[in-house]
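[Discussion] Sanity-checking designs against the backbone

I'm trying to build intuition for which residues belong where. Below is a structure token string of 671 positions. I'd appreciate it if someone posts a full sequence so I can compare it with mine line by line.
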């Protein structure tokens, strides 16, 4: 799943944020921990496993209404007299019947549905209960994912994503299940879901689509709307695209790219048991992307020309990492989202080369460091699934764990580990311990040290080094010492000596504990010594520190926590007072808060700074012009707009805007 997209003129966002802004203060992180619905609850331990759902649902899309009956086949782990599910709080339960068809009592409390049984269900024995329910799904109100619509019914397009709990869900993200979905919609609509499709049954005014997914996975997503399928042309791939009219022309390029990504992953992870893939465009008011078995749903803002292949690669990898193999508990979630992020990076390395891969991993490291200290990866179950903290720890640090594992055990053993994972755990869940054993088997190395420091605890090294050079008979010798503060640290660390007039000499030094000595011989005169130059290890250094503080400030700004954001940008300026970006952001916030003098001062300082990125110049002049217009100084405003035009930089339409305000003064809210 991917979330985000941010506004102009932002540094390019890596993921798609939901349109609605986060209204969560960083200072409230402690409150968010463990309280929110999401992974946290699932872990509280269910006493039963759902094996199969048979859902008959009628969608009255023009009225945003669902009426449904779900037969739930389950196996209790102990004798049970009560069952607890999660169900979208807008859905009303009408009736629940036990295996003998008798009505039983139930209680709703927000997201929870508790069912009390008169006759106990026996441990180990397959039983079925039936839940009849229905209701209105027309807004984000009552959403199981706070502030994000993940279940919506409408004539403009229906999306019922599994996170929307639009049917009674047990062990969210953990309990794998099979499903038969019989979905009835108005006769001009099409339904797309996971599994084998039957021929639609037509009746006057309506049509019923049936999908059977008979393996245990997460086939809980249904999409409906006015679609015409566009088969992809790529040879050998079974891909159908369901794009909306505005994007129909992009179907061939999306089909081709998806086929390439599927081919690449099939080579390195092993082929999927069923290669059919539907790529379906949903709406902009939800997550950027979501993947169910055989089905990738994308928001319109995620469908771009040229193809946003990174996002597509992340989503398609979920066909392996979630649909085929999934985390055993919420605490193992990095095996899903973290591995999806790293799979994306592997595809980027193959499709765009090493430099693009290294850029991506640097950005991933910054993302990981932004909230690294909040919780170890192994306690992801304590975090709310859709928060910046979750993204930092599970997605980004998770991806870094796979990156570092590859560095520690080598490319061959790493790829072997992923192959074994897809092969031995197909249609099953896997725990972090089981994954560790696969990596140990593939690499023939004991890896407790690795998982202990990177998965089970927090903490990131910051390396210092000292060195001296000695003349040898032939050439030179560098004798040095590396230091960092983490006591339990143990990793191979690359040390590179840059030499005069010849290629650098690189050695892999096994570092255990806080200090390690190294001796490296060179032919020509050593100039510099670099520790971990290729960023194999998640670490803090001056550059990442600046980027991390900046990323934290940007998050606060996106959450509209402006006073906290101002403080945080000032912290960024403590590290780098020359940062035009921090000044620009401060100017922008002050402008929004109508502190025009403060805003003007920041925009001016930004123009005197490092002008990185370049668009700051044009946008600062534009903003200064706007301030002059707002404060009734038209001549000075025109002067700034002219200076904006002189930059000749039309990033995010800056020049168009300058021309517009030259014609007609800027007024607040006139954009
Ligand atoms: Zn994902």
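Best answer:
Here's mine. Compare freely.
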């Amino acid at each position: 799943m991917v979330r985000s997209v941010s506004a102009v003129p932002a540094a390019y966002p890596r993921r798609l944020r939901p349109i609605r802004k986060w209204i969560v203060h960083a200072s409230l992180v402690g409150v968010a921990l463990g309280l929110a619905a999401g992974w946290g609850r699932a872990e509280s331990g269910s006493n039963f496993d759902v094996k199969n759902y048979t859902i008959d649902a009628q969608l009255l899309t023009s009225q945003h209404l669902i009426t449904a009956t779900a037969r739930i086949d389950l196996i209790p782990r102990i004798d049970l007299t009560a069952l607890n599910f999660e169900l979208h709080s807008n859905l009303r339960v009408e009736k629940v019947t036990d295996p003998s068809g008798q009505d039983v009592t139930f209680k709703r409390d927000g997201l929870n549905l508790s069912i009390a049984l008169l006759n106990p269900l026996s441990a180990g024995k397959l039983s079925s209960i039936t839940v009849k329910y229905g209701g209105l799904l027309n807004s984000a109100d009552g959403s199981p994912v706070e502030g994000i619509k993940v279940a919506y019914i409408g004539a403009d397009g229906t999306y019922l994503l599994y996170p929307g709990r639009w049917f009674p869900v047990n062990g969210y993200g953990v309990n794998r299940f099979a499903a038969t979905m019989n979905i009835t919609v108005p006769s001009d609509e099409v339904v797309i879901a996971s599994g084998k499709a039957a021929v639609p049954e037509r009746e006057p005014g309506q049509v019923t689509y049936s999908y059977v997914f008979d393996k245990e996975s997460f086939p809980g997503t249904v999409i409906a709307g006015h679609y015409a399928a566009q088969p992809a042309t790529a040879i050998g791939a079974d891909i159908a695209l369901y794009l909306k009219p505005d994007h129909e022309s992009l179907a061939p390029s999306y089909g081709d790219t998806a086929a390439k990504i599927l081919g690449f992953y099939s080579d390195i992870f092993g082929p999927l048991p069923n290669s059919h893939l539907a790529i379906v465009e949903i709406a902009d008011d939800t997550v950027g992307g979501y993947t169910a078995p055989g089905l990738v749903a994308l928001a319109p803002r995620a469908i771009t020309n040229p193809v946003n292949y990174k996002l597509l690669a992340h989503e398609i990898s979920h066909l392996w990492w979630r649909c085929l193999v999934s985390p055993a508990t919420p605490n193992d979630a990095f095996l899903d989202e973290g591995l999806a992020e790293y799979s994306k990076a592997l595809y980027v390395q193959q499709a765009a080369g090493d430099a693009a891969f290294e850029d991506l991993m640097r950005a991933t490291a910054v993302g990981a460091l932004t909230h690294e200290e909040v919780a170890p990866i192994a306690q992801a179950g304590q975090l709310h699934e859709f928060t910046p903290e979750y993204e930092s720890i599970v997605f980004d640090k998770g991806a870094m764990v796979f990156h570092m594992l590859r560095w520690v055990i080598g490319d061959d053993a790493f790829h072997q580990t992923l192959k074994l994972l897809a092969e031995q755990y197909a249609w099953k869940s896997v725990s972090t311990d089981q994954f560790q054993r696969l990596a140990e088997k593939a690499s023939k190395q004991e890896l407790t040290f690795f998982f202990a420091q990177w998965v089970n605890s927090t903490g990131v090294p910051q390396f210092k080094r000292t060195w001296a050079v000695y003349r040898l008979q032939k050439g030179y010798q560098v004798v040095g010492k590396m230091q960092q503060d983490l006591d339990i640290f143990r990793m191979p660390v690359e040390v590179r000596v840059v030499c005069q007039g010849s290629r650098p000499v690189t050695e892999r030094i096994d570092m255990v504990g806080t200090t390690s000595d190294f001796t490296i011989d060179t032919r020509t005169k050593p100039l510099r010594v670099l520790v971990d130059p290729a960023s194999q290890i998640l670490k803090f250094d001056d550059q990442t520190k600046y980027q991390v503080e900046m990323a934290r400030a940007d998050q606060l700004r996106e959450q509209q926590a402006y006073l906290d954001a101002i403080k945080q940008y000032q912290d960024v300026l403590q590290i780098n007072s020359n940062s035009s970006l921090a000044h620009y952001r401060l100017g922008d916030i002050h402008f929004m808060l109508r502190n025009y003098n403060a805003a003007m001062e920041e925009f001016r300082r930004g123009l005197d700074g490092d002008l990185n990125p370049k668009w700051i110049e044009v946008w600062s002049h534009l903003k200064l012009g706007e301030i002059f217009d707002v404060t009734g100084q038209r001549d000075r405003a025109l002067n700034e707009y002219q200076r904006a035009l002189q930059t000749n930089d039309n990033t995010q339409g800056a020049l168009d805007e300058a021309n517009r305000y030259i014609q007609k003064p800027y007024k607040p809210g006139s954009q």
